[in-house]
Design brief:
Layout: E1 22-23, E2 32-33, H1 37-62, H2 67-103, H3 106-120
Antiparallel strand pairs: 1-2
Length: 122
């Protein structure tokens, strides 16, 4: 007996729900890190596009597409991830570092940033 599946429609990148406020649990001091709705939307939309791009690369590999074509797409994803990291870093510098400077806790925030950059730049 054939099963009836609902028709599929072309998918668009779904809008992700707003992400919750988070704390930096890796460090001894904690502070709330709140993203603006616009910033969240920008980062999540970019990550969704990157996610789709990675699925496309996976398909290329499964289809045995030429290696140079796959490498070009991998480079495009790396560039897109670098741009997301830049957005996050810019926001961190303008929001978290500025907040820490106003609260007199700048040294702890700088140490946290250094540790994150050490991991990021490996």
């Amino acid at each position: 007996m054939p099963t009836s599946e609902p028709p599929t429609t072309p998918s668009t990148t779904p809008e992700a729900p707003p992400l919750p406020t988070h704390t930096h649990d890796d460090f001894s001091h904690r502070h709330a890190h709140v993203h603006s709705e616009e910033s969240l939307r920008r980062v999540v939309n970019r990550l969704s596009r990157i996610e789709g791009h990675i699925r496309g690369i996976k398909s290329m590999v499964l289809e045995s597409r030429p290696c140079p074509d796959v490498l070009v797409q991998v480079a495009a994803v790396r560039g897109a991830l670098d741009r997301v990291a830049r957005i996050i870093l810019d926001e961190h510098l303008t929001e978290c570092i500025a907040r820490a400077a106003n609260e007199g806790d700048i040294q702890a925030e700088i140490e946290e940033l250094k540790a994150a950059l050490d991991r990021f730049l490996l």
